[in-house]
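yo, Calcineurin-like phosphoesterase domain-containing protein is done. seq:
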Amino acid sequence: MSSPLVLLRFLLLRILIPLSVLSTTWLYLYPIFHLCAFPSPPTSNLHSPFLNTLAQHFHLTLSNDDTAPFRLLVFGDPQLEGDTSLPAGGLLNFPSLKGILGLVRDVEGVKGKGEVVGRQLSKFLAEDVVRAVVAARKTLDLWGNDFYLAHIYRTMRWWTRPTHVAVLGDLLGSQWISDEEFKVRGDRFWNRVFRGGRRVGDDTTMGVVGGGAEVLGEDEAWGRRVVCVVGNHDVGYAGDMTEERAERFERVFGGMNWDIRFQLQGTVHNTTTPPPSIHLITLNSLNLDTPALSAHLQNKTYAFLNQILSTTPPKSKTDFTILLTHLPLHKPAGVCADPPFFDFHGQEYGGGVREQNHLSEASSKVLLEAVFGMRSPAVAGEGARNGIILTGHDHEGCDVYHYPSTSSPSSPHPYNTTNATTTAPPTPDSLREITVRSMMGDYGGSAGLLSAWFSRQKGEWEYSYQDCRAGVQHWWWGVHGLDFVTVVWWAVVWMAGGLVREGKRTRRRGGVRKGGKRKRRKAG
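structure:
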């Protein structure tokens, strides 16, 4: 066997195949290697969320106390890009070659015609080819990004087995795209990135506020539905949110303001004690602040909050409220990565909100009081409803507790952050807000895991949250690139080996024929 072929086989068998198998196994089983799992109740017999999840995959019998009945898999800001990120004209656009025949005809003489052709060809190589290469690279990048995000959703959903799934806004990358491009990106969202997921039906998202109620876990289809929260890149901020943009979002992704209650299984309602339930609220917070371009849409959002306020029963330990919205609540600079920031359109464009990092202090106060009953200044004996707020928008993520203040709308403090000097412990009056880190590759492909369970010993709901990261998108590209190289390398080794074997057979046949002729000559 030739030495080059031996070297090729050595590299394939000893380096490429082992690396490819190990890296691919890690990539497609990363939640297992990272020990990602929904937190378990403290009453779980397995004492380990990871072992609990593993037991579910082996179909082992688990008691109701082993697994949280509500498990929300939540993603932040996928921001699917499209034609707006591609060079003008697309991939196969060569303006330097268009009309070149007409330019040649307009010039007399062979020399002049040659100069025109040379000039246009130079522009073709210097501009058109460069633009085509950039467009091809960006097209490939968009394609790969879709499958990277799809890999995160598919792998996390397969391993963790959520009861519910949500995306916290900025599903798409721009509110300024055309209706045709919106449809294209919507199709990519449902048929590629969140393939297998289902839009929450209009009977739920367009129904009566406070009227929807189901038994938790009875409808297993919730594990395949994707709750889509509206973000600024989907419909715009208050200053550029139009009814047309809102309508197309709701047509493709579902309603912007809606709620539903999930009653705990095995509980009986009586007149004295309401059954333990989870109140899931999806809110369009983008037009809570003013000025707004569409007063009608803003009125709908505030009407929804008023209906939540009027239909929510008195505070009870048996209730747990989960608010899903895009914009984080107000926080002083330094608490999270994004500081408070507002920008407004010029008066010629209506003067509305053009950009914001947080809700204003006033809007935050309204939201906390309407949804959670947290009043500031604090009222003695009146704490916030038991619950949690999940937001997006700040791609870095954040984790804070809000406390009712004696003088200001709320007093947020970071929780479980590097800035430990300002960390304040949670109290019965506090309310936790988690800004879920973006699932985009630049932020590590993050996913949030929220578990909630009812403690019969305490008579109230408890919860726990953790995140799980796939790693930056370069790992996804690198592993699949290595797999491609390994397959090509194997094909080269296989073909080279075949050629070597065929050459040996040919030489053997040639040697036999020559030997036979020599023997016949000796015999003569």
